[in-house]
Each structure stands twice: as C-alpha cells, then as structure tokens.
Amino acid sequence: MARPVGKRGESRARLLQTALRLFGERGVNGTSLQLIADELGVTKAAVYHQFASKDEIVLAVVEPAFARMAELVREADAAPPARAFDVTLEGLVGLAVEHREFAAAIQRDPAVVQLLWRDPAFVEATTGINRHLIGADPTPEARIALAVAGGGLMIAGMDPSLRSADRDVLARVLLESARAVLTPHRAAPPAA
C-alpha cells in the first residue's frame, strides 16, 4: 500500500531528490511520474498533488541552479570589469561541479534543453553568463569556444568514471581547461 504524503515541504524535497536521481539514471524522458511515485512509495495522485506535470518537476529540480546562475551574473556585474570574466568562469565551474547530477540529466535529453530555453530565468542568466565570458556580440569562433567549454563542463558531470573524483581536483582541472579554451575569446572589459 502506498504511504501517505507527509509534510508538504518534506514531501516536495524528497520528491525532487528522487526525481533528480531518476533523471540522472534514466534521463528525463525515461522517468515517468508513475516511476517517481513508485520510488517514493506513494500514489501518482500524490505526485500530482505536488506538481501538475513532469515539466514542473524538471523546472523545480533546476531552480537552485538557476538561482545560482542569476547570482553569478550579479556577482560578475558588481565585480571590477577586469575581473568579470574570472568571476563568471570560476562560478560556472563551481556550479557545474556542485550540480553534476543535473548536468548528466540535461545532457541525456535534448527535450529538457528545449524546456530550459523556454524559461525566462534560464535565458536571462545564460545570456548574462555568456556576455561576461565572450561578450555581448561574440564572434563565431567565440561561440564555438564557449560551446566546447560548456560541453566539457556538462560531460564532466555525466562521466561515471568522474563521479568519485575529488571535487577540488575536478574543479581545478575544469577551470584550467575552460580558461585555456575561452581566454583567447574572452569578453574585453569595457574601456574606462
């Protein structure tokens, strides 16, 4: 028999943790609301009580990363112009290391990427990050370099052989690698 859902906040957090784990293991498209309910030992109706759709669950799972992305843009905006690139890149690497499981889930499902690009918070944060890394009007080469660096950060989250990697070592190597790829194309600080 399915367990009743407990306190709403605890139930929601448990549901999101379970969804994140399943998204990482099976991809978003391979994870049904029924599977989430089964893993939690609740009814599908209990899942629907918390969220109206799987898309809502996906957006709730990524909300902490969105919030950190927006915070990162604010930090870079407030930094001295000569430091904005480094503040952004260091923050982005930290975000990738902190949210490796979600990076793995995104990489698996192009439909999730499309869902994210429909979310204004994601678009705004991504645009701000890109502006600090490669400028507001980047060259094609800069966009390619950003795609290479971003892909490397995502794949690091997806690679099962890196799951047990020391976080500090992973962050250092990712930062060095992304910096090497992006520095030739970095956004020029505004002229004083």
From TrEMBL:
Record carries keyword RNA-binding: no
Keywords in alphabetical order: DNA-binding, Transcription, Transcription regulation
InterPro entries: Homeodomain-like_sf, HTH-type_TetR-like_transc_reg, HTH_TetR
Transcription regulation found in the keyword field: yes
HTH tetR-type domain: residues covered: 9-69
Database matches in Gene3D superfamilies: Tetracycline Repressor, domain 2
GO terms for MF: DNA-binding transcription factor activity; transcription cis-regulatory region binding
DNA-binding region residue numbers: 32-51
Protein known as: Transcriptional regulator, TetR family
